[in-house]
Amino acid sequence: MRSSKLIPRCCSFGLSFLGAPEHWSLFEEIDAVMHYPSGDGFLEDFQTRLLKVPPASFDVECGDHILNPGVPPYVFWEGEPRQAAVLVPIVQGAAEPEVILTLRTTRLSSHGGQIAFPGGKVDPGDPDPMHTAIREAEEEIGLAREYVRPLRSMGPYLTGSGFRVTPVVTIVASGFELKANPDEVDEIFSVPLSFLMDPFNHRIGSRPWNGKERFFYEIPYGERYIWGVTAGIIRAIYETIYGD
Question: Which CATH number fits domain 24-242: 3.10.310.30, 1.10.3720.10, 3.30.300.30, 3.90.79.10?
Fold first, then answer.
């Protein structure tokens, strides 16, 4: 049996951390062994839990600023936050449900070479963030919208670069085809949903910034390194669905 560990929450749920990281007051003790069904049963359990989440929980703002006391959520941006949305596409893999992710091309000026969900800024013609997420996935990875069934839009994730990101959790029907847009995506791959929702795989990383350690979430998966906003969104989804 794997041991429990302490991981600070990504979403404040009306609370905040007090003091320096070594004195975080809002820790969550996690039994790192999953007790949820696997395979199709896991996806059914995931959907059931998600659809039972009270609407007020989706108003809670999340972000790695909660891990960094005294650092504002939009630390690298001045002015009003920019609205954005990402698609969290869940597909039925050969053995179990999987989540589609992308490796952004290194030619991009923002977050190049990083792992991300398909998504982008809300355009003036987009009626809502859900439309944005579906449109961006169609543009970035060729995921036709007729295969996408939205489940719920999650609470906003605030990024240091000035974006207020709405993750849209969806189920993707079988029969779809994907094609990466080479201007934005180098690779499309998938990770088991059960791996991403297992808190044992969630870690806290840090890097020096302005003479201090800046903390963020990370979820290594084999040779893949999921970190920053993408890992934080995954963590926020976990907390919203499985957190007490």
Answer: 3.90.79.10
Residue where the block lists tokens 């998966």: 221
Cα 82–193–166 angle (5° rounding)? 15
Q: Name the percent of the chain in helix, strand, coil, to the closest 5.
A: 25, 35, 40
Sheet of 212-221, strand order = 203-209, 212-221, 224-227
Alpha carbons 217 and 159: distance in angstroms, whole number:
13
- Among residues 122, 119, 84, the alpha carbon closest in space to that of 100 is found at 119
The model carries a pTM of 0.87
d(CA 140, CA 186): 10
pLDDT band at 8 (very low <50, low <70, confident <90, very high): low
- Mean pLDDT, range 69-89, rounded to an integer: 94
